[in-house]
Amino acid sequence: MRHASAILPLALLIAACQPAAMAPAPATSSAPVATAAQAALLAAPPAGEGVQLSIGPFAVPPGSEVQKNFFMKLPVDQDVAIARIQISYPTGSHHCNVFKSDRHQAPDHVEDTFDAVAYDLYDMFAAAQTGNMDWRLPEGVVLRLKKRQQLIVQTHWVNATTQQTPGDQGQVKINFWFAKNAEKAQNLGMLFAINKNLDIDPKATTQERKFVDLKRLGHDQDVKILAMTGHFHSRGKKFEVNRLDGEAKGDALYSSDDWDEPPFKTYDPPLALRAGERLLYTSTFVNDGDRVIKFGPHVETEEHSNLFMYFYPGPADGRALYDTDGAP
Fold first, then answer.
1. What is the C-alpha separation between 107 and 67, in angstroms, rounded?
2. Each residue of 150-195: pLDDT tens digit?
3. Phi-psi region for residue 168, left (φ > 0), alpha (ψ -120 to 50) or beta?
4. CB under 8 Å to 216, separation ≥6 — which residues?
5. How far apart are alpha carbons 249 and 143 in whole angstroms?
6. Strand partners, 238
7. Confidence of residue 40 (pLDDT cuts 50, 70, 90)
8. Which residue, among 68, 175, 69, 172, has the nearest Cα to 129 in the 3D structure?
9. Is 191 exposed, middle or buried (0-12, 13-18, 19+ CB in 10 A)?
């Protein structure tokens, strides 16, 4: 999540592999197509089996952090159910988050910004922090998207001290593969939790905790956890998720000590989570510098402590669950 030092040339194209009954969607930009090597980053699904979003390439100058929000429409002309999600990008990306909206429409455009997406209008439904995410949802669970649905693809790149971007260019490709016989399938749900209460003292090791309760967020039913991943910046040394046994820390569900490529952990069989049962996630930071580190989007100077969790059944209206109020 970073600003470039200037608005830079970029190419944005959407390659739509429509179901057979659909007409191809028009490109959203007349900018040049990526080179053959860049286009090979991730092959598009065969026609009728899925759709690809192709972002860039765009400049990530040396010494910069760049965060771009690409506003676009899902290039399909009928509602679809998604059974597989692929997100691919070369070295240098810090994250890629994808949002959808039924409550906001915007012309196709690109914004350079580190401001948070308007969570009241946009629902996060996919996120990647590794260069090649490939996730097949379990049988009977789908992500539902609407024809020409408003999307934001947010991509954050670093080409500075903590990370480098070879070639000084960013690019992302995303494949959504269509599900078959999805009428009775359950909706995929997503939780995005943020701990904003970060106060990481210099020359110290600090632990920051946050409690998560889906019931408190309005989803009052038993669910099955399908996957989760943690997120922090370079001072982060360990990210842990535990069940709570009363007020005590219970079973460990997730652990990562990799800040720039944290594991995307899937659960087979899924993990049962009872309505009202709480989770605790803890980030351990080591600050070797001489100043206090606070919450913020910039990898070079600030920190995060975020949890992404996927589950089913999700909300009937397809909304994401956000826990971003800063309360621990």
1. 19
2. 999 999 989 888 888 988 999 999 999 999 989 999 999 999 999 9
3. left
4. none
5. 32
6. 284
7. low
8. 172
9. buried
Residues β-bridged to residue 13: 54
- Find out whether 166 and 60 touch, Cβ atoms under 8 Å: no
Q: Is the dihedral of CA 140, 96, 38, 163 positive or negative?
A: negative
∠13-308-39 over CA atoms, to 5°? 25
What DSSP element (H or E) covers 36? Answer: helix 36-39
Q: Which two tokens stand for residue 212?
A: 């998560």
Computed over every residue of the chain, the mean pLDDT equals: 88
Which one, of 81, 146, 143, 176, lies nearest residue 310 by Cα?
143
Confidence band, pLDDT 50/70/90 cuts, at residue 90: confident
Per residue in 213-233, pLDDT (tens digit) is 999 999 999 999 999 999 999
Q: What is the DSSP letter of 304?
A: -
Strand partners, 153: 70, 98
Q: Residue 94: pLDDT band by 50, 70, 90 thresholds?
A: confident
Compute the distance between CA of residue 122 and CA of residue 109 in angstroms, rounded to an integer: 16
The structure tokens listed for 99 are 């949002």
User: CA dist 177 to 19, 48, 89, 129, 136, Å?
Assistant: 11, 9, 18, 20, 9
Q: Per-residue b/e over 11-20, b at no fewer than 16 CB within 10 Å?
A: bbbbbbbbee
